[in-house]
Amino acid sequence: MAQPDNNRRTHIHDTTSNIRRLNDCFRRSLIFGGQTVLTSGVSALDTEAKTALLRQVQTFDAFSRDNDPHGEHDFGAIEHAGVSYFWKIDYYDRARQFASPDAADPAVTVRVLTIMRADEY
């Protein structure tokens, strides 16, 4: 009987942990390690509402198996002033043209965090 490849499992765990750490650091700052994009519905909010919404994204910690099945902390759903919003982190190559070859490596990855109204999805 073959033994499980513990090195592979450890590598996957380390990769996921690193992606999660990079995502959390970027999301909490909204500027370091990536680019933040607001959809037209979010951009149309007044400054006070936008600031409150951005703060909710930065402090989001309600990760679960339902909204974070891969453990990367790359998606969240929040509510502000009775409106549902989503935020999502995607991983692009440095030129922002294709998917990143390795989301765990910040040298080859640009994170793009998009914040949108749920009805814009």
TrEMBL record:
Pfam families: DUF3768. It comes from the Bacteria. This is DUF3768 domain-containing protein. It comes from Bradyrhizobium canariense.
